[in-house]
Amino acid sequence: MLVKELVKKIEPELIDVRRYLHKNPELGNEEHLTMEKIMECLKAWNIEYEKRKTGIVAIIRGKQQGKTIGLRADIDALPIKETADVPFKSENEGVMHACGHDVHTTILLGAGYVLQNMKDDLKGNVKLFFQPAEETTGGAERMILEGCLENPQVEHVLGLHVTPDVETGKIEIKAGKLFAASDMLTIRVEGFSAHGASPHDGIDPVVASGAILQSLQPLISRKISPFDSAVLTVGSIHGGTGGNIIADSVEMRGILRTLDPDMRKVMQDRMEAAVVKTGEAYGVKAVLEVEHSYCPLINDAEITGVVEMTSKKMLGEENVIVKKHPTLKVEDFAYFAEKLPSCFYEIGCRNEALECTEPLHNGKFKVDEECIAIGTELQVRNTLALLNS
């Protein structure tokens, strides 16, 4: 059977799987029901797999010798209450597939089904990575450390993500820098508590924290070239126990996003200097702690070129949008792209007639389910193109 015919045959089952996953969302490292559903499908389709703690590596072994291609989907959900009006609404209170990982998982299952039915003609192997914890601890790095890219050795990895910014039937793609690196920031400011009527008896960390916060923002607007990119966000400030008490400490939390490794280091050095020196000026001890999170996602030019060409043949040139600029999103597929020449692209799921227009990470987020068949066929055709190249 042709690829399109196999996709059409399995599409109704894929939609049912997606709706089950959407009704039963699970947070990172807790994806047990999700794994059971994935394994149920793999068993039914006679696809070989290996279960990890909360992740699965499956393999389709082609009859002919060749390279091994990896396909990856993230499987975890978000701590968001669903407010979208759909018949398969989340039954796990306060948890929702608000980033489309249920769709990614379903597309990967669909690609696995099609490729398994074509294995006699495959020139090589295909590994399927059902990856946990993209939204939290970075499950991609853990899967790599556990050996998912070995035995047989994977040469390239492909991944995708739904986007409500683009209409169903279109994709966005870009070679080179695509998404940012991220670093989680904690700023601890230690003062000395006193009565609010006698502030001179204490050392006020709240006032100092305000000054520190003000000192950080000009690092972006005045210390970085307008042609470079970085975003610094402080989204949480906590300190004090009462309105008439000089607090003894304040804690601020934020995130730094950068596209360039050198800029990442420069920003960290400048932030530390601003925090420490401003703290000294206000008589407090101020410390910056940086927790390195995801690395930047950089698409390989050659592999991205193959995906772009294959996608244009399938969708038409007018439906393949080549992005000119990277964005400061983060995505732990970056760890696969750091190890191997890889490509990550975005697939449209927007449909205004179906009210599929809300942004990712929103309680009203919905997808046009037609993107499932499109994504499945794309991943299959891209895989075949790489195996045959």
Automatic annotation (TrEMBL):
Keyword Signal found: no
Keyword Metal-binding: yes
Record GO terms (molecular function): metal ion binding; N-acetyldiaminopimelate deacetylase activity
Gene3D superfamilies registered for this protein in UniProt: 3.30.70.360, Zn peptidases
Cofactor(s) required for function per UniProt: Mn(2+)
Binding site for Mn(2+): 99, 101, 135, 161, 361
Cofactor, how bound (note): The Mn(2+) ion enhances activity.
GO biological process: one example: diaminopimelate biosynthetic process
Domain of life: Bacteria
Pfam families tied to this protein: M20_dimer, Peptidase_M20
Keywords: Hydrolase, Manganese, Metal-binding
Residue ranges of domain Peptidase M20 dimerisation in the record: 185-280
Protein's UniProt name: Amidohydrolase
